[in-house]
Fold these 3 entries.
Entry 1:
Amino acid sequence: MKRIYLDHNATTPVNPEVLKEMLPYFGEEYGNASSLHSFGRYAREAVEDARAKVSNLIGPVEPVDIVFTSGGTESDNFAIKGVAHALKSKGKHMITSEIEHHAVLNTCEFLAKNGYEVTYIPVDEYGLVDIGAVKKAVRPDTILISIMFANNEVGTIEPVKEVSAIAREKGVLFHTDAVQALGKIPIDVEEIGIDLLSISAHKIYGPKGTGALYINKKAKMTPFMHGGHHERNRRAGTENVAGIVGFGTACKLAGEYMEKENRRILALRDRLRDGINKNIGDVKLNGHPLMRLPNTLNISFKYVEGESVLLNLDLKGIAASSGSACTSGSLEPSHVLSAMGVEPATAQGSVRFSLGSENTEAEIDIVIKELPPIIKKLRDMSPLYDLRKK
């Protein structure tokens, strides 16, 4: 059975060129990047070369502004908690949205239990943050606004430049979780006006366990982790040299192929969307129809459960998702779809298809062929569909 992977927003396969660049640092080039001898210096050179490659993908910014972490979750924690502790004398109020990744939401919830106050901004039916609500929410004691660059479940691209303008006007730091946006759409932190930006390697064909936080020099931060003097005293812990090298190579490749690859993947995504619309009734597109990541298609199949759709697709060798991989197994409707006003029963029938570099037209056509009978079978078993027909 041919296996088809349409869950690239969860993770991506490591690019062979990325793996090739990483391999020496698992073997003969095993030096600690903080050591002064030649083994350490060679590792340090590799880390700094990767830092420059990462900075080029979100810049141009100075490589020194990039701090390597263990991934997007740590970067989000670092940004939010780092600002919270550094600026607590100024205020303890933060602003975020209702549809953030749980790495942001749960961090804010933790701070709220420890003396901070958080305002959650609503979104419209397409998942777009209410700019007016952001501006209205800013107070004299507001120290941080954290709004994601693009949503991981529905792909909606947020108006981060407008949010940044509000933050600058009010003298508030602006953080964005750009984990899903990196490598899929252009990002220029200086042009947009971003103070803190979280990114991760495994979403762009790099290794798991490696990420980064961009920190504008003007952003006052308290270190999130304590120990040695690594990352210029900003993040303690021996550098993951192999992972960092892989991240750098993945960023380099993403920058080289982004424009061409986006056009190809967008055509595949729309081919899948059109095939679903043509062959299956009672479906709903979730997310903005235009301001959306080129690889992401979130569809609600009414009168069925998304988990059942996924299991049946998996039996056919097709991998998709019902939302964020980090909330897999939860029986609750997606917090993103709920915030967008999608009815619970419709939200439960949502499936996220996220495409990537290895997908082909032939694979999309297989999905279009296999999906209609799956939906029909599940609807024939559904009491909700029986009620609808009556």
Entry 2:
Amino acid sequence: MFDLFIQRIRQRDYRRLLGLMMASKVVGVIIVLLAIKAITAYLFTPAFADEAPAEPPAYINPINTMWTVIAAFLVFFMQAGFMMLEAGFARTRETVNVLLEGIVDTCLCGILFWAWGFAFMFGSGNGFIGHQYFFLQGTPETYGSTGVAFLAYWLFQFAFADTCSTITSGAMVGRTGFVGDLIYSFGVSGFIYPIIGHWAWGPDGWLTTIKPIPFHDFAGSTVVHTIGGFIALAGAIALGPRLGRKFKRDGGAPMPGHDMTIAAVGGVILWFGWYGFNPGSTLSAMDAAGCGRVAANTTLAACAGGLATLAFMYPRNKVWDACMTVNGFLAGLVAITCPCYWVSPFGAVMIGAIAGVVVVLAVDLVEWIRVDDPVGAVAVHGACGIWGTLSLGLFACGKYGASGPTGPDNSEGSVVTGLFYGGGMGTLVSQAIGSAAITAATFAASMVLMYAVKATGTLRVSKDGELEGLDQHEHGGGAYPEIVLGGAAAVAEPPPPVAQAAVHAPAE
């Protein structure tokens, strides 16, 4: 082979061809290197370098760290609530599918948030994406100036990311293939949520620099709930309705869930978990007044939301609707998540009550456009997430600034004031910009993701598989083995002979 090369190298045409090939490869390598340099210069250099975050303190605040860890546990426990709520609103034949999706989405989200999700969202970078802490390498003792141990902060934020992914699955119940669920969950937890979330919560996200008033989202009405709700909308659109689903405008009605007991209990578990979601977002047990105010506002908004929905529904159908009332108090919780630190108890009641009406109207809208959302995820999280974000610009009472590691910062420059309290339109405009930008970007990216997964043929199960039921088709068995799937009969063991004789004995 070496002799053949020597013979060819002596040929002038071969030498010219070889020279051109080598030159083209060198030029190609140079072009690739220049492209990498240009991309990293744009995407992976700190924006607003003169405003880069200060070096974190070496001291870990044990009280704030334990408060954050406990709050993370509460937020994580919301997964049990989501699984019960969605399973109750689903049919018996897809219960195992709902439960397993919740478990596997959690496992997948944890690995992705460790590998690069946290880096994209909370690492320094530029206004659009972070690039620190991949695989949790090179982490400092604490995150920023919070005084919270870095891994405790990671755990808290992982629980939030997991919540966003679980919201999505609620609108896609009953017809999503399990492989398709894994693929879109990879896209949601690994890319959509952390990258778009960086805009509002990253150390240098562009929404935090809006002038003259930055965008605010205390605990995630936009970052968690609006993102989750509009990913859910994209998924439901890409999937299409369940077989046999007939919409109201076509003379039909929603398919009822199989167990309102576990759905209602799941909803209350979510309410309980919200006490980690909202008060925990102070990241500071030293801000005792702020923690108490956030917890009280969370409670009042949920109560007002549930009652408003109950009252709003009764004149429509002359029954006290349990299903919608559960979604009503969840709507109040979603709405108060953004403004909970900056509003008064009166503001919390008003925000929750309006959310209780918004969720009903949003359910009607989703039904009217013929989108099949079995649990109301789009209405509860998407629509009420937008309302909660905007409500800050109306109801922020002008008394509170920011929570800090040693206590609240209520200095003049940090206090948030809404339109109804003399603050003008500034806060409302910033909230509208942030909500619109994140909503539009999320929906666009999610439509691309869902239709890409659909193109692989894995997003929706086959017609036969859906008719058989996802539990049998995808997982080999149901949650209720004593029920004959596909029929109404229940298989029960015969009563013992004595009891049987007693039943048929003549009356004395």
Entry 3:
Amino acid sequence: MFRLLGYPSVSCDGIRRRDLLRASSLAMLGSMVKMLAATAASDSSLQTPQRRRRVKSLILIDLFGGPSHLDMFDPKPAAPEEIRGEFSSIPTVLPGIRISEHLPNLAKRLDQTCLIRTVSHRYNSHNPYAVMTGFTGGQDNIDYFAKPTNHPSIPSVCQYFGIGRGEELPGYVMLPAYPGYSQGLRRAGPYGGYLGPNYDPLFSSCEPTWNTKEGKVSFYDSDHRPLGEPTLPKIDAGLTLDALNLRRSLVTQLDQAAQRMDTLVATHKIATKRNEAFDLLTSAKAREAFDLSREAPQIRDRYGRDLFGQSVLLARRLVENGVTFVTVHTEAAQGNGHWDTHSNNFKMLKNILLPFLDAAVSALLDDLRQRGLFEETLVIVQGDMGRSPRVNKNAGRDHWPQCGFCLLFGAGIRPGLVYGQSDKSGAYPTDFPVSPGDLAATVYHLVGIDPEAMVPDQANRPVAISHGGSVIHGILA
């Protein structure tokens, strides 16, 4: 069977014409990208001076749906029960700082992190658009789904300016699948947008199984956990490497005919992206980097034997092998795996979501230190919004973008810092509010790009990459 980010399609020889077309257009669908250096170099007016680069790699763990800050990193133990919720808080290694009782491993490591408790914006939407771009002016009727006019993601902008070019491996990878995978849609956020599909990430694929029952379950089921691991598009017994190279030859012949109909520039771009897709599928280094069986069983156990724990482990493997930007997006399986806890908030957090986060992020922090990657890798953990201060009648919390959290550690980050404070109900920041644009500006600063730089939109108009955000100097080492 030959599968490229879609659903399986098999014939007697292991591949159908549709699969060949998928292979030849993989990058055009946002599945394979590297930066075309000539694209950025062609417009010198939009180049930005290279600055001191403090971050070699970035791992973003995007908690899709809106994690409850009150039940995680900003508890209010003195508040009334309808605000405080069902969980107790525990002390951390930082004097006077408490977090949820269900994050014991992170409580012991909080002195190695920076915790922002005042992420605030107005984009009340379930996609990673603000998280991935720093832009918070989107509207669901316009920006919910990915489209070419979207603002580009932070890694896409970095690649445009020459940071994160892939060689044997792509420079920008998203795990375990594209946002919206479980619902058959593509959410806005991770793409190159008006910079073009050359700056889209490589999306891995996944085929989750379940720890309990099979089939569709309640959106708020607190026992149904997705298992499995992200993978490259597969080459197995149905399609050998020799057969794939034969298809490359056939596609080359089709290109020769296409050149008589298309412009040279268009044909060159398509051929370049297609060749990158073929190179990835036949790359021994890529297959080795994505092979989680090379990890010791005890390491895999520490991260958690579920789809998202293994995705975080794979993120470490990828940066270790030279990938610059890796995002783990926690919405790639039907059933649970999301943080949109309008109902059953406390059981979902207690049984599935907080144990996953506590184990995987703690393991990643330790692993980066042990492998000498901590001082060159920036890790960011955040979601699209926080949750409402008041618990609703369904034992859930509703959308609340006015206040949320972000956890950072690694390269360039000041450890042992709690930045910002929310009010007594966790509804609004009382000091140091932080926007997604501020976080974007800080990332650009750390990777060596001028946060005030601009890129061209589809009409060649300059657009600020930080969308009005400013570097958060107070959290920098």
